[in-house]
Design a protein that fits this description.
The complex is a heterodimer. Chain A is mostly helical. Helices cover 78% and strands 0% of the residues of chain A. Chain A is built from 14 helices and no strands. Chain A has helices at residues 2-29, 34-41, 47-57, 63-75, 90-125, 130-144, 147-161, 180-218, 221-228, 233-255, 257-270, 276-285, 289-317, 319-322. In chain A, helix 1 runs antiparallel to helix 4. The N and C termini of chain A lie close together (7 Å). By secondary structure, chain B is an all-alpha fold. Chain B is 73% helix and 0% strand. Chain B has helices spanning 3-9, 11-28, 30-33, 65-101, 103-118, 121-131, 136-145, 149-163, 166-173, 178-214, 226-235, 241-269. Chain B starts with a helix and ends in a 6-residue tail after the last helix. The chains are: A mainly alpha, B mainly alpha. The interface between A and B is large, with 47 and 42 residues.
């Protein structure tokens, strides 16, 4: 077991190098330079001043040399400094925004698991019933709804017509003057819609997946055996069938991490949440190369960690893998 | 039972197919059926709620929303099809190479696939598109270039299984070359799942395009797309609900139709196909 995970961790290193290499080249080879934006703002800038600026940022060197410098600093967990006027270290900027994005995504994932799995199991055990048909239709519609549109609709309904929930940011203006309980309440009311929407994307897929797994498992011989030896239907479904149907779901959850992180760009921009997604959007708009690379790398690392956790979960849940 | 007979029995899939045909008709005949010029600005009719003259209302420049949605369907359909065309082409070629040759070719390409899958796709899309000139042709290309990984895996799996079948081996025995075996013998036998995933891919590409346009880095105004009408909807969210509702319904119906059609085709070809 330990050897297996050590090996998996080592395997992550070439993948991360590959990811950063590809991202670095795509970003640096794309037309337009960060200095273009600076010079657009100041039409009086001379070509010499521009060159000086490029030299200052290290953009005059060949791209492979630039990558070499970047990766050398990365080994020491140094992502460099942002190109923006505050020139703060990239890692500091990411550090203050990472927790909120992770919090929202973890809560969404928990919500997805809590809702999708029971739905999947019950629609499988009641295949072709009215309930199954309704959930199938709901799932199909769920697949097709753009989350950012749903966000707008929820904002109109709960934020404007009913005025129950705040529609932007993660805390109210008077946040600092609130009591601890008040602070928690204030923040949760801000987070309800983003978390719901984050979960929504995964809900349809996972419940569908759980349903088809259950349908397959229910027909297996060992389920017939379990019924034949007189176990209650409850024990058959929840102990024998569900545990086996859950196994592939763990992998799917791991694979859903990049989608969740990518999706955070959309609702962090809609709800004005100061997280990684919003940071990335801003860094892309200002061509802040070090910041873009930093966020992309962290996003990829989170994805790989998600996959690793999924594998660990799989190993814990399945003795056939655990004992290998 | 033939494919068509099985497909016909699936009412939802049939409905999806009819809606897809309907959308095509609308897109093709857009100039003839739109009540107004989609880009005609009318300062006397700003933010007018839905009514007799403007069934879906007007936007902040007085443009007719129904006309803009109809014209927007052209954008969605072309982005959907071109993007999927690109991703399917790349996926089929890479998948065929890895599945057929195996060895280091397989190792290198599949590693590349793993790497692409580990980068949050939407981040990558955003980075590339924001750097290029935002516009419809770049959107199509970039969506296509970032969504070929699934098809590659699919085609690879198909090739691995079809490669060992007797007809492939007998083709090899009579001296057919690699290219002939790949294109004449294996590929035609692997096309069904590719078709299904392409139809489902159109839905995905339409969703992605609308999200990008919504964020302001997709199709640029004044060209209307469902996503950028929703941006105006967001800016006027407290006063004009119709700007947020109708374009979203259009996206929902379109994506739903392609999904139903795709699943219907899959079930009619092979209900056990895993996609």
């Amino acid at each position: 077991m330990v050897i297996y995970f050590a090996k998996r961790l080592l395997e992550m290193i070439p993948t991360i190098i590959g990811i950063t290499l590809i991202s670095f080249f795509i970003i640096h080879l794309a037309p337009g330079k960060p200095t273009d934006i600076l010079s657009e703002l100041n039409p009086k800038i001379t070509p010499e001043a521009r060159e000086k600026l490029e030299k200052y940022y290290g953009l005059d060197k060949p791209i492979i040399v630039q990558y070499g410098i970047w990766i050398k600093r990365l080994v020491k967990l140094d992502f460099g400094e942002s190109f923006s006027t505050d020139k703060r270290p990239v890692w500091d900027k990411i550090k203050e925004r990472l927790p909120i994005t992770i919090l929202i995504n973890v809560l969404s994932l928990v919500l997805v698991i809590l809702i999708a799995i029971p739905i999947g199991v019950s629609s499988a055990t009641h295949q072709y019933s009215l309930y199954d048909k309704i959930t199938t239709v709901v799932v199909f519609v769920g697949f097709a709804i753009p989350t950012f549109w749903l966000a707008l609709l929820l904002m109109i309904l709960f934020g404007i017509y009913l005025d129950w929930l705040p529609i932007s940011g993660i805390k109210s203006l008077n946040y600092d003057s609130l009591s601890t309980v008040g602070k928690i309440r204030d923040m949760s009311s801000h987070l309800i819609m983003p978390v719901l929407l984050g979960a929504f994307g995964g809900l349809a897929g996972l419940s569908r997946y759980m349903r088809s797994n259950m349908l397959e498992v229910i027909r297996a011989d060992y389920i017939t055996t379990a019924r034949a030896k007189g176990l209650s239907e409850r024990a058959v479904i929840y102990k024998h069938a569900m545990r086996n149907a859950l196994l592939p779901v763990i992998t799917i959850l791991g694979l859903s991490v990049p989608g969740l992180i990518g999706g955070s760009v959309i609702f962090e921009t809609i709800f004005a949440i100061p997280g990684m997604g919003q940071l990335f959007y801003m860094s892309v708009m200002t061509r802040d190369y070090p910041l873009i690379m930093g966020v992309l790398t962290i996003g990829a690392v989170l994805t790989l960690i998600g996959n690793l956790l999924a594998d660990a979960g799989y190993a814990i849940a399945d003795p056939r893998i655990r004992n290998r | 039972m033939t494919f068509w007979k099985r497909f016909k029995k699936n009412k939802l899939a049939l409905l999806g197919g009819i809606v897809v045909i309907f959308l095509f008709t609308i897109a093709i005949f857009a100039p003839a059926i739109t009540p107004y010029d989609p880009n005609a600005i009318n300062v006397h009719n700003i933010l007018e709620p839905p009514g007799f003259t403007h069934p879906f209302g007007t936007d902040d420049l007085g443009r007719d929303i129904l006309s803009r949605i109809i014209w927007g369907s052209r954008i969605s359909l072309s982005v959907g099809f071109v993007a999927v065309g690109i991703s399917t082409l790349i996926g089929v070629i890479l998948g065929a190479l890895t599945g057929y040759y195996g060895g280091w070719v397989d190792l290198v390409i599949m590693r590349f696939v793993d790497i692409m899958l580990s980068i949050p796709t939407f981040f990558l899309l955003l980075a590339v598109i924001a750097f290029l000139e935002p516009g419809i042709s770049n959107i199509m290309i970039v969506i296509g270039l970032t969504s070929w990984m699934g098809i590659t895996r699919l085609v690879r799996a198909e090739f691995l299984s079809v490669k060992e079948r007797e007809f492939t081996q007998s083709a090899r025995a009579i001296g057919a070359g690699d290219m002939r075996i790949i294109f004449r013998h294996i590929l035609p036998n692997s096309l069904a799942p590719v078709l299904v995933s392409a139809v489902l891919g159109v839905a995905g590409a339409i969703l992605t395009e609308s999200a990008l346009s919504f964020l302001g880095i997709g199709v640029q105004p004044p060209t209307s797309s469902w996503g950028n009408i929703l941006t105006i909807g967001k800016d006027n969210i407290e006063i004009a609900w119709w700007l947020s509702v109708f374009p979203g319904v259009a996206i929902l119906v379109t994506v739903l139709a392609y999904n139903l059609l795709g699943e219907g085709i899959r079930d009619a070809i092979d209900p056990r196909m895993k996609l």
